[in-house]
Amino acid sequence: xxxxTHPIAQEELMAYLDGELPxxxxxxxxxxxxxxxxxxxxxxxxxxxxxxxxxxxVESPEAGIxxxxxxxxxxxxxxxEAAKVSxxxxxxxxxxSRWVWAGALTIICLAVALxxxxxxxxxNEVRPAAYPSMASIEQYLTPDRNAEIALARSAAPASISxxxxxxxxxxxxxxxxxxxxxxxxxxxERSWMSPxxxxxxxxxxxxxxxxxxxxxxxxxxxxSIKRTELVLAGMSKAQMIDSLKAxxxxxxLPAPAPGAMCYMMSRAGYLNDAVGHYVPHLMFYFPLTDxxxxxxxxxxxxxxxxxxxxxxxxxxxxxxxxxxxxxxxxAAPVM
Length: 335
Fold this sequence. Notes:
By secondary structure, this protein is an alpha+beta fold. It has helices at 10-17, 23-33, 37-58, 67-82, 87-123, 145-153, 158-161, 214-219, 221-232, 237-249; strands at residues 165-170, 173-178, 185-189, 208-212, 261-264, 281-287, 304-305, 316-322.
């Protein structure tokens, strides 16, 4: 990983996975991970190694030691219990056992080192995309309609989402499941709302609960609905890009309205394979603007430029600000 092309060092990625990065750096890590397949692979490798180490910790000692070593240990223990031994002999037995355990530990450490070496080597190999094309539509749908309604409501505090309009994804696109009273609209976005060059663009596991305020419901929600219509029509990415650009050029899709924002505070969402649930945050939408006007991505700033529409056909700038609580009021992880 080169510092020239990757603004996040390997140790910072590990700190991000452990929840040890400050909120501004965590948001920057998310922005980069969403667009970088190499770093997504690295994160997956780190998680795999971590899971293997945890598995070693919970196994009994015998599970990780060769059968010959187990037999030697058992024989020595039986002899020590069955016969009276002098202190010099007992001392030699204990010292031998220690050396055996030390040898076993060395084997495990060598295995971990080998795994890390192979992981580093494999990252440099060309790997096929995990989601190269759209899956069957069934994989993007939620069989339980009530479950999707509940997930959509979890995007914002109940004081907002309980009176919001709720949309759910069906075979023909998004449809109204619950009429609202406060002008807010909650829904669960799918993977095709990611940047077009995202490795997760066709990931059927993605579920992103969002609750748009009235301004965003008028000006940002139509884009979510339009992208979904294009996907269900079977268009390729290139065709979708051309269609969206034409609609914005002809003002068939609106520019972000003043004050447009949305809540993304659900602890049950799944953003992508690299970051999973991420942290609760708010998003603010503007016509194309310089991120410096918000101090986004500066050291110590809680504001991050979201890459969702960067370089895409939509003339939209989106800022992200993390918050410290989930929509249910419980404290979020410190990041």
